[in-house]
Amino acid sequence: MGLRYSILGLLHYRPMHGYRIKEHIERNFGHMWSINYGQIYPNLKKMLHEGLVSMSEEVCEGEKGPPRKLYAITEKGREAFLDWLASTPEGGIVLRDPFLMRFVFFGFGDKKRSLEIIDAQLAAWERQLAKRYANLARWEQSGLYVRLMAELGVRMNEVFVAWLKEARREIVDEEADDGSTVVQYATGIDHL
């Protein structure tokens, strides 16, 4: 997904500053895509130069520091966004997750440490799933496509939690067969 088009899509809702754009992408699209904060402002600057967005300064009462730069989509930006929206999506599914890259090599490392890392990932995915469940009602008010994406986020999250639990069980069982010491895991959300 091109960052510029994600920004243009978000700016359809309302003008935003760079930090708010990054926060929104991470909170609501984290199951699809992650971004680096350093990517936001160079893209906004380029889009401003291309006439896809406009920029105004927002002075916040009682806050120190320079005014915030508030970006809004222009008509040219709407046209570019609609062209992108109508085009055929790029390539296949790409899943980039540093944990999964590490997971594939856990067999070479310390099993106890591998289980600790798995437990930490499981806890993080369970916290995220709880937030997604809590936000479903809000997303249902945001229109069909947003609701469907929110449901996809929940399902993907559920799949990862279930997979991590099963992977952990198999690793523990293998360790038990080897006579190794195994770390027990207590979950706060165990409804899958």
Describe this structure in words.
By secondary structure, the chain is mainly alpha-helical. The protein has 2 domains: 3-86, Winged helix-like DNA-binding domain superfamily/Winged helix DNA-binding domain (Arc Repressor Mutant, subunit A); 98-178. Helix content is 61%, strand content 6%. It has 7 helices and 2 strands. Strands 1-2 form a two-stranded antiparallel sheet. α2 packs across α3 and α6 (111-140) packs antiparallel against α7 (144-178). The longest helix is centred in the last third of the chain and has 35 residues, at 144-178. The protein is elongated, with a radius of gyration of 21 Å. The two termini are 31 Å apart. Mean pLDDT is 84; it is low at 181-192.
Which keywords apply here?
192 residues; mainly alpha; Arc Repressor Mutant, subunit A; 2 domains; elongated; disordered C terminus
* Intertermini distance: 31 Å
The CATH class of the largest domain is: Mainly Alpha
By DSSP, the count of extended strands is 2
Strand order of the largest sheet: 1-2
Oligomer kind: single chain
| Averaged pLDDT | 84
Following the backbone from N to C, one meets helices and strands in this order, namely: HHHEEHHHH
Number of domains: 2
Radius of gyration equals 21 Å
Which architecture of the largest domain would the CATH scheme give at its second level?
Orthogonal Bundle
Report the structural category.
Answer: mainly alpha
Please outline the major beta sheet.
2 strands, antiparallel
Shape: elongated
Helix content bin:
55-70%
Write the CATH homologous superfamily of the largest domain: Winged helix-like DNA-binding domain superfamily/Winged helix DNA-binding domain
Number of helical elements: 7
Low-confidence stretches: 181-192
* CATH topology (level 3) name of the largest domain: Arc Repressor Mutant, subunit A
